[in-house]
Write the C-alpha cells for this entry.
Amino acid sequence: MSKEEKILEAATDEFLTKGYDGARMRSIAESAGINKGLLHYYFKSKEALILKVFHSLFREIFSELSDIFNSELSLFEQIERGIGTYIEFLIQNPRIPFFVVGELNRDKKAHLRRMKEAKVPPPFMELGRSIEEARKRKEVKSDTTSREFILNMMSLMLFPFVAREMIMFTQQINEKEFEAMLRNRKKQVAQLLIMDLKVKAK
C-alpha cells in the first residue's frame, strides 16, 4: 500500500468516525504512520483531503449504479439489481449513512458542495428518467411519480442502517443476524417496490 493509500484509508476512518469538524489532520497522519508535514505534502488541507475521500467512497458505487440504470436490462431488472448493489455497498460501509446524515444536519450547503466538487453525481437520476419514460408508455402505473418511487426506495434501503441499534434491540438479534436480515431485504425491497409500479392486469 502506498503512502497516499494509507493516508486515504486513515482519513476515511477519521471522517466517518468523527465527522468533518471532529477530524484532525494530526490524528490522520499518526494513523497513517507519517508525520503531519508529509500529510500536507500530499494534501494541502483538510478540505482537499475530504474531497478525495468523497471521490473514493462514492465514485465506484455511483458509477456502478449508473451502469446498471443505463444498461439494456428491463426497468424491473434494473431496479432489482440497483437495490441489491446499493444495499450490499451499505452493508460493507455501514458508517456512511450516519456520516452523511450528520454532515447534512451540521452544514447541508458545505456537504452538498463537497459532493459536487468531488464529482459525485446524484445516483438515481437515470432510474428516475427511465420510470418517467415507462409511465408515458403506460408500462407502469401512472399514479406513482419517479420522485415518489425513489423516495420510497431510499427510505426502505437506508432506514435499517440509520436505525441499526434500535432494530437489533427490538428484534433481539446480533450483528451477524442483522447483516443476514439486510441481505434478505435486497429481494424483498425490490419486489415490494416493483409490485407498486406494475400495472395490474384487467
In short: The domain at 50-197 is CATH 1.10.357 (Tetracycline Repressor; domain 2). The chain has two domains: 1-44, 50-197. The mean pLDDT is 91. Residues 1 and 46 are 21 Å apart (CA to CA).
